[in-house]
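Homework help board

Subject: predicted structure for assignment chain

Our instructor gave us this sequence and asked us to write out the predicted structure in token form, then describe one feature. I got the tokens but I'm not sure how to describe them. Can anyone check?
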Amino acid sequence: MSRKIQAPGDRAYRICKSCVMDTSDSKITFDAEGVCDFCRDYYNNILPGWKQGEEGMAYLLQVSEKIKAAGKGRKYDCIIGMSGGVDSSYLCYIAKEVMHLRPLIYCVDTGWNLDVAVENIRRVVEALDLDMYTEVVDWQEMQDLQLSFFKSQVPYQDLPQDHAIFAGLYNYAVKNKIKYVLTGANNATECIRPPIEWVYQNDIVLIGDIHKKYGKVSLRTFPKCGMLKYRLFYTYFKGMRRVAPLNLVEYDKEKAKRFLQEQYGWQPYDNKHYENIFTRWYEGYYLPHKFGYDKRRVYFSNEILAGTMTREDALTELKREPYPAETMQKDKEYIAKKLGLSTEEFDRIINGQNRTYSDYRNSYWLIQLGTAVLRKLGIEKKKFR
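My token output:
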């Protein structure tokens, strides 16, 4: 598999002395000690406000009481979006057994989940005696939007899926008057936000423009919810609140995996987000092959900063392929067939001229402005660029 790890233009290749982020992120900067801006942002802006240990648990229990009070008299006092991955699975345990809440488990079937993910969801939900609602995205619409994104030649091929999952979750919560949305987002594994050129934000304008240019099927039922809608309208006019409990407990991903395996028979995956066949191929092949972006750098750097992985181990892992070449080829053939393409047609699309969000109508300036305001107010901690 080809890797384009050299930085764009004439910039010399560099890698952070602290984590494993490098100049495959064209906007990364380094201080005099060779430490990148992501690490400095973590130490200066994220770590100081991160409630951990006894302080975190005390705050978690306070939050629990607020959620219980808001949901009094209702069947559910919160909702959790579950994928079957370790973050969302462990969150279900925390919500039910530690916070003593009554969550509704919300799942989205985008057509790509592996059987192991479906089985993980079933085992955790049944063991914790939780109710679950599954929203099935219309496949013709999902297929048409994903094919449109491939034809657009942008890196962010998981955006249609991500948007459907989060838009569906927020829309369902507001529609059914469930005030609190519990999210598996956490500083332990997500304190570094992937660079914007790797993973673009939830931009409804970009999604609409790409589909308008390349799509053929009307997105009549496809879940939609732009950032302004859920950040402003849902939050300040509908009262929706997002809570990240994993930030308030000790969250070591490897320990969490072992716990889930022992308690519920949960099965692990090779890498983060690999519970989904499309995401596995997109992150393991498409991004590094076509653009030179290896998202494992972000995942491993997060663990290095959290103290759950050494830099040496991360560098060793990065030398290995994300997943076996034979599996990758089978995944590519499966995805092409499901999108209505031959493998040759799919390869021609993949090998087209690379593009970015700037080649289409987008709301980047508005997202930048909104994030700057949120950081100023102390609501958003992660670096965004």
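Reply (TA_rk): Your tokens look well-formed. For the description, you could write something like this. The longest strand covers residues 103-109. That's the kind of observation they're looking for.
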